[in-house]
Structures are given as C-alpha cells and as structure tokens.
UniProtKB/TrEMBL annotation:
A single MF term (Gene Ontology): DNA binding
Keywords: DNA-binding, Transcription, Transcription regulation
Coiled-coil portions: none
Domain of life of the native organism: Bacteria
Species the sequence originates in: Pseudooceanicola algae
Lineage: Bacteria, Pseudomonadati, Pseudomonadota, Alphaproteobacteria, Rhodobacterales
InterPro entries found in the cross-reference section: ArsR-like_HTH (IPR011991), HTH_MarR-typ (IPR000835), WH-like_DNA-bd_sf (IPR036388), WH_DNA-bd_sf (IPR036390)
Protein name per the record: Transcriptional regulator SlyA
Primary gene name: slyA_1
Length: 176
C-alpha cells in the first residue's frame, strides 16, 4: 500500500480508487442498496421482535436467554447444561453464566447426577415455573404481532423460509 508523508509528518495511506466509482459521498457501490438487502430487513425485523420481547420479560425480571432456558427446561424436558446451550443456541460459557444467575434468582436448582457425580442436572423451581407461566403470554403476544402483520399463511411461509435459510447452520449461531 503506497503511503505519503505530509509536511507535518503524518502518514497517509493512499488507497487505490476502484475503477468507475463515483466520488459522491452519497453513492453506494453499484449493485448493492442497503434498503433492498434481504439481510437488512431480516436483521431489522429480528431486532424489533427481540426488543418487544425483552421489554416485556424485563417486567418479570428475565432476560431473553433466561426465558429460552426456562422453556428448554419446562417444555422440552432438558436437564443438562450442554443440552440447554444447544437448544438456546449459545456457547457453554454463556450458558453457565445464565444458569448461575438463574440459580441465584432461585428460578432453577442444580444437582449432581445420580449415576455420575460429574454430571449436573438442572431443574425448575416453583419460582421458575411461575416465571414460565408469567412470560408465556408475553411471548405469545409478541408472536401474534408478527402473525397479524403478515397473516397466518404468510407467517407460516416465512417460518419455513427462515428455517430453510438457517438449516445446518445452528452451530454457527452461538451468539444469542
């Protein structure tokens, strides 16, 4: 990369200018328009949905990750931290941190396995079951907002399309 030195001694990198690129500050590279990008609209829709749910869950002292873990325990019968991490789509470190917080809040209990003392089993407490009961209407209402805007058929089609987009990619999504 060529560089030049100014009279004050500062160094400036001279980037090559792409051929045919307009010098106007408002122009975008040919062929890419942000607001026409599928990724932009997917990201925006996801953030809006997450924000709506986060605001409601905060009212009952939960985060979205806590909520997802509670659902894994209550609805899926998961009991192992690794199962919960895979179910939620987060790494083991984030799962351990969330489980510690949830244990401190008395939403869950962690016990040693009966066959293998190295194994930890996670179970819901009464407070955890109450949190699921209280949070369920929030999650259902949030889902209904999207379904009402699209209509049931389009919502079902969108769900199928999103599943097709993410199929086989679950291991890459450890960032919830």
């Amino acid at each position: 990369m060529p560089a030049s030195k100014s009279a004050t001694g500062s160094v400036t990198l001279d980037f090559p200018r792409p051929v045919g690129l307009k010098t106007c500050m408002n122009s975008q590279p040919p062929g890419y328009r942000l607001h026409q990008s599928l990724g932009y609209w997917l990201s925006l829709a996801a953030r809006l949905q997450e924000r709506r749910l986060d605001e409601k869950l905060r009212e009952i002292g939960l985060t979205r990750i806590n909520w997802c873990i509670l659902l894994g325990l209550a609805n899926e019968g998961l009991t192992q931290p690794s199962e919960l991490a895979d179910f939620v789509g987060i790494d083991r470190t984030a799962t351990s941190r969330a489980l510690r917080q949830m244990e401190a809040a008395r939403l869950i209990e962690r016990r040693f396995g009966t066959d293998d003392r190295r194994t930890r089993l996670i179970t819901l407490t009464d407070a955890g079951r109450d949190a699921v009961r209280l949070g369920t209407p929030f999650a259902q209402a949030n889902s209904e907002v999207m379904t009402e805007r699209l209509g049931p058929e389009d919502a079902a089609q969108l769900r199928q399309l999103l599943q097709a987009l993410t199929e086989g990619e679950e291991a890459k999504l450890r960032h919830l």
